[in-house]
Target: Calcium-binding protein
Amino acid sequence: MSTFDPATLEALIAEATVDAYGEDEQLTGLFTMIEENLAVPFTTTVLGVEVNVIGVDLTEDGRVVVRCARGAVRQNIGVLDLPLPDPAPEGSHWIEAYRYWAR
Model:
């Protein structure tokens, strides 16, 4: 559940997609805002295991993912499925905007 109201999320989406034509460019705009503004690394818990989120990426099939690390193990997790810690890292409002847009 987002901590931001729909009007705020829609304003963020409008900011990220101002020059975008079509869904692919909108996705790229939102990804860019996440990539540029999300404060990494941060720690969160995935399936009961603490992991470090060390980066963000856009996959070839059009998914925004975060790169997670635990020791030497690395795994990408879709931003739509990522549990955010409390307090959430700086810039996480762009993740919330992306989730709202993706619905």
